[in-house]
Amino acid sequence: MTATQSLLAALLAPLLSAALITFFFRRRGVIASTISVVAAAAIFIFSLFAIREMGTGSVVASWDWLTFGNFNVSMGFFFDGTAATMLTMVAFVGFLIHVFSLGYMADDKARARFFGGLSIFMFSMLGIILADNLIMIFVFWELVGFSSYMLIGHYLDTEEAAAASKKAFIVNRIGDLGFLVGIVYAYWHFGTTNISEMHGIVAANADLVNAVIAACLMCGFIGKSAQFPLHVWLPDAMAGPTPVSALIHAATMVAAGVYFLIRIAFLFPESVLGGIGILGTSVAVYAGFCAYGQNDIKKILAYSTLSQLGYMAAAFGLGFPGIALFHLITHAFFKALLFLGAGSIIHGCHHEQDIFKMGGIFKKMPITSITFVLGVLALCGVYGFSGFYSKDAILIAAGLDGTLLFFLLTGGAFLTAGYMGRLVWIVFFGKPKSDAASHAHESGFTMLLPLIVLAVLSVTGGWLQFWPEQLGHIIHLDEVKLHNAAGYADKHHLVLILGSAAWIVGLLGSLLFYGKGATEDQLEKRAAPVYGFLKDRLWFDEIYGYYVAKIQQRFAGLLSVLDVFVIKGVLVRGSAGLVGLIGMCSKSQHVGSIHGYVYWFLAGLIFFWVVATGVLKAF
Amino acid sequence: MGHYDTTSLFLLAAILAPLIAGVILLFGGRFHINTLRAIGAFGFGWPLIIGLMLYSLFEPSLVGDYNFEMRMPTGLESIGIYLHLGLNGISMPLFLLAGTVGFAAGLYAMYSNAERLHLYLALLLFMLGGLMGTFASVDIFFFYFFHEFALIPTFIMIGIWGGAGRRSAAIEMTIYLTLGALLSLLGLIALYVQSGVDSFSLLELRQYLLAQPLSETVQNNIFALLLFGFGILVSLFPFHSWAPKGYAVAPSGAAMLHAGVLKKFGLYGLLQISAPLLPAGAAHWFPWIVGLALCNILFIGLVTMAQKDLKMMLGYSSVMHMGYAFLGIATFSIVGVGGALLMMVAHGLSVALLFMLSTCIYHRSQTFDLSKMGGLATKAPVLAAFFVAATMASIGLPGFGNFWGEFTIFAALAEVEKTRWIVAPAAIGIIISAIYGLRAVANIFFGQPKEEFEAQLNGGTIEDLKGFEKLPAGILIAALVIVGIFPRILSDDANRELAEIYPTVDTLPHHEVSAIPSKETHKEVSH
User: Which residue segment(s) compose the domain that B327 sits in?
Assistant: First the structure.
């Protein structure tokens, strides 16, 4: 099998699975889930084939898709080290989450729809990873949006899921508007949207880098990776089943925005990069604060995801796309682990999601708890864990750049440890605070196995020296670049001290403040205004809600009224009325009575007299 | 006298079969239902079969000329009117569209419970015959004649089988559309007279007018007649007010064929006749088309968002999407017109599907009021799946044909500096359509049912989509997906044809540095 064939097989396996499920196994949950898991395994195997065939080079293949005049769209693969790294992660984490779902979704009535949706998602995600041009990325970009819509709306008889799925799709579309404009501008600017061709053009003539195009393309990233001001959809997306939150809204899809930036990093001028750096940093800090105001275990993790995506964006903005990719990969491991762990807890606690109704989980669900805590340590950047290496590199990069971003991002690390500590102490320790929690039971094998594998990866995933040589090339490049930068040694020690301080202070501080197995939020009790402020998340949802309901919808209503009354009423009916009026006038000449004709005759006579005598001219 | 060959006789048969079946059904009041359906199946199915057959026989080398050409005398040779039929790369997609939508609409109608079914089917068949004729005509007299022939049954069908308020809607639609048709007829006659070529043949007119273009003033005036005449037929802003109400009350078969296919007549006229023959006129009216088309997209888009009635919403959304097609044609480039053509085909399929599914929903909910439904997906998951797919198609999700239409039009707008700014406002439409589309899906299918609807939903009388509903819906979805995944099956021939009649824009600023995309279809490099 050539590399191209392997990639095609990997891409088409989930599509085939989705088609089979849709057409034949809609009501056969067991068969549908088996097909979907087999497809996920096939993706991973074919990906390994492709990477082996690829060696250390890259694979390029292209087919014509649509041609009109000068406009030429192709679909194709551009499979290099970056794509291979991302593909390995997505295929592997995706497979584990499929396995986890076997257990988690075992009682669901609509299991076939769920697994069909997962397969469509894997297909779309692979498309983004492999695509060799912007238009193809956009196609699959929209398709992941659709599969995300479908999976968020899985529990479709709840109002929450109905609203959240709609919101996610529409907010993403707002970002896609900019993305789309950027693509069509880029097409005529470069004469192509092929990634490697554009790279060649920019390399030959750096003046062709265009800030407007870069800013437009960045909008796509803002929507998909839920960055400010389009971040509002991600917490709501937690209405979907937990494996979906783990796969789509933590490990892969939301990270696709960052991956996309990394692929087209050469298109970004300094100005736009600086903007992305500031944007990412502020989201990292903002989301960290928001997490303190949440009681739903999944929403805490969702804000944590937002915050970590901010770190990736910051790394990219600082000019280190390789470091961003590194953090993307390590984050995928530990965040998938945390979400699946949360899923295991929710499953064990009979769908209880409020952390203040849990407590004492450690004794009831030891394996879930240990793996979860390992994930927390990785997220907090404890020395030796995967999250340490990538976060360390980001902080050093920020430190080399300047003081503001450095302190904000370091502060973000303190925040992270704090809210994760809050979650851990409240959920795992103390006494159970609800019937659901006291009857919690450890999950089955299909759910524990992915947790264990991901826990191992969360610990070891950052040890770059053990990565296969085909993967992580640009990570190495950026690491080397970082090492050789002036002032590296000083910053390295500073970050080591501050980073360790962050997780120690955060975890211990939260223990002291919240206490083990607390029944209520200490922050809410002691400083209600502060808690309320964090809970309201700067009122973004309220502002958008107000805009949609009170401004947009009213404006639409006003236009609708205008349409009915002015265009249909006055203009159309009015012109019909005018014709009717003329008709009435001319009809009155033919009344059929001799009197009438006499008057018309007299009127005519007077008219001619007036004309003939020239009285009319006097006016 | 006439000249034809075997394949062109098939083309003629595609027009005559529905007409003959229609005439038989007119007298079919006492036929058994199965006889009615058999005759209907012949009349509705034949054009699609022939369309597919002719597509497979299509000879791409005849660019600039017509495939399957035939010319029959009609007794009007003295003024240059022949029954002149043929297909080229531009009309072929629309011919297939008419066949596909006609078959789906016919299938659905045959199993509907309409009163006087034989008459209903007969009128639909007449409409279909007219539609096939319109897109197969090379002679612009017959192009117009067939359109009128298809239009008249629409009015009758709305008048007889329409919903509440059908009388006023039918009258408004009749007057309005007749006015539009009249204006375009004036324009076509003016073209004939001004050219002085004594022929209604599009081929001869084109050859002549390319050699001796009309003066700019004459072009401007004729183009105006055609633009506004055709524009009324395609619901160009502000001449759209007939459409939403008209479609809202129309029986589903008529709405499917009219909104799906017949409406495309005006756009087809603009891109096949007006723009290529009157380039100066097109350039003169360019700002007008852009302005009005943007109103279609933004103004009508927002109006669509305010609708509470499902069918009114669909009617307005179809008006909105026509704005994209107008923008594509306004660019006067191969890319833009090609995009408009794909848009026309895909929109025709998706809007017909949506109108059909809205009737399926009505049969289950007894209402079109979006605020009075909810939760239907639990009882009718297949219907929900079809409706979501159709909505996704119409809001331009990749994988369905509509995406290529919209995307290519945006690309065409960005091609030259002059129109580049239009991309941003026009693309706002993708957000607007997502909002109203998903809102409708959520209101009808997701969440909890509203009070009155809950009793009905739990009453156990609501069934999922039945076979006779699944088949036509499946055909339309399949067609949308095929165009979405393999747009080249339509675009390659159209591209060749458009290159003949539209100028190429060669304005790539960095042409010299850009690597020319390789012509190899499949290359693999490992280095």
Answer: 286-527
